[in-house]
Write a structure and sequence with these properties.
alpha/beta; six-stranded mixed beta sheet; four-stranded antiparallel beta sheet; 13 strands
Amino acid sequence: MITSGPIIELRGATLRFSDDAGVEELNLTVEPGTIVGLIGPSGSGKTTTVRLLTGVYRPQAGSVRVLGQTPARGNRRLRQQIGYVPQLFTLYPTLTVWENLNFVASLYGMPYLGRRRRLKAVLEFVELSTATQRLGRDLSGGMQRRLSLACALAHDPTLIFADEPTAGIDPVLRTRFWEHFRQLRDAGRTLFVTTQYVGEVANCDQVGVMRDGRLVIMDSPDGLRRRALGGEVVRLVVEPQGSREAAQALLRHPAVSDVRRARDEPGALFVTVEGASEALPVIIRLLGETPGVIVRTAEEYQPPFDDILVTLLRQEEGRHV
């Protein structure tokens, strides 16, 4: 069920542990039914932000609102609407999968007689239906992560926080986790996810970039690419002997804002434009009419998000020099 109004609101939220630790003047609004990803270097303040939003910490300045309320440890009504997947496995190693999940359900006050169907559905959702009698200590790392997600979903929360939920697990399981997250989003849930795998932000609706305790950028994945690249990029490969003529012809066209040659691939050009899909036929037609230029391939180029993050952080650093 999608809640009306913002799910999360941070207004100038500040929490300092020391001169170089904590978060500073965080401003953020999260709409319902979305996946928000938070990325940034280690120590940039991602986990501290999650702890502010879940009520573990209180801000020294500014305000934090979650589901229209101020998060606090004693706010039972709010906690019943929130699920939390921690970085580390924190369940009971000597209890079975079912016992762990059943125990967490009891903490949320789920009626004993009515909870069985819900818990079975959650275990099926995270693909642990066949492991109900295995002890927590005997689960693989990936299965422990899935059990943590199941426990976070046991009470059917509106808002789910996941702090680096895919850290240390294999790429196949990471893909499954994000499939689960998208299914939850499509069912109306809101997810706030921190991740150390920058490429995962492609699965998010909005992405926050943190640096030194500050939220320096908030945008969609496509918006981040455009910020880093100055637009969208078309990658061309032409016959090497005609690459100079191709670059000159492209730079004269009003639809092109920049052309860069690849140092390690003769004939490869990266062309910055406003919109790649609209510019591609224009570029191909232009080069087809340019003497000495033969186009081998032309396609929209999307660099890895790791490169995008590095570029964005360098840009941000340059603004503060």
